[in-house]
Amino acid sequence: MLHRRSLWIVASGAIALAGCQATPPDDEGRALRQDLRLIPDATTVQAVVPRNATFESLLRQQQLAPELAVAIVDSVRNVFNPRELRADQQYWVVRTLDGLFREFRYRINDDELLRVIFDEDSDGSTPVPFNVERVTLPKEYVRAAAAARISPGANSLFAAFVQQGENQLLPLQLAEIFSGEVDFNSDLQQGDTFEVLFDRAVRNGEFVGYGDLQAAIVTTGGRSLQAFRFVDVDGKPAWYDEDGQSLKRQFLKTPLPFDPRITSGFSYNRFHPVHGRRRPHLGVDYGAPTGTRILAVADGVVVRAGWAGEAGRLVHLRHAGGYETLYLHLSGFARGVTPGTRVAQGTVIGYVGMSGTATGPHLDYRVRKNGTYVNPVTAFAGMPAGEPIEPERMADFVAVRDRALDELRQRMGQTVSAD
Fold first, then answer.
1. Quick count: other Cβ atoms within 10 Å of Cβ 339?
2. Which of 178, 214, 265, 299 gets the most CB atoms within 10 Å of its CB?
3. Residues 51 and 123 in one domain
């Protein structure tokens, strides 16, 4: 192991940082000065992580001596997994004017930076004098509202909101709220509308994501569905309709995000495109790109996760009430999905693919009730809701509901009602 003095000698060697030009920090870098103190009399090199780089190769590319690069990677492991380094993410290298390594910063995601600082004032008690931390970047939340409509030019929930200038994450959150009530893959019709009250996350005036949704109204198929976020006595948020009934259902209507479409339905006499003859199709095929996340439709236990002949990679879950669900033709399994593992509703269990006998990427989704296959589209119709608001908390809920409706009405400039 290298000691502090050895590392200082290494760090003070030629750290030429070849391949990048020293440039002042960009606007984002300047905005971070309140939280990331730049060393006086220092120069900063900014670049992006190249493809197929490792943490060590990235540092070596900047001509850090091998011993120094290895020491930095070893110091980082306690707060960041070096294998999670992602291509095209920004990073910065800071050095003194005489070429000494002082600091390395890496943008982990929209909200966090990894920061590694060489501590020249260390008393030598530690063999590697680096301070390593994950820095949470400051942001603020601004209350906002948005509306969208299904139209010929925007015939999906995703397209409807993107057409209004919103990021795809907003309709994804909306779909999750109503996942027990609406199948956004097949239920939507022309003219359906959506209204959402939410918190927009901004940093220095720029959009960086979404906070919590507060209220939502979905009008589809001649019915109006309302949802309100309410925090229970234990501090856990949940979603309820206008009467305080829980929107959580035992089973989600679909195991995929809302974009995919049904390409083949449940049938005992379907013409098989590969085998060229009629045979039962005991599930529903959802067409979706390879890699699309597949969600557990309910709490359950993994019975099987592996190769299953023509079904390819398969996940089999067992749920309460005699129900089982099966997910076929996967491209891969989510980490930790192994037989005996308990999974919660909405957990990612795998990814869409075309393993086994398949003509294209899709998910073959199947449901069994007491050992008999049933149509997944209708299997969970009429499932009871979760627990409603407790009577002693209804007054608090009504106040939250009415306040949200008033704010949504004001921001959308139109009348909405809980009646």
1. 11
2. 178
3. yes
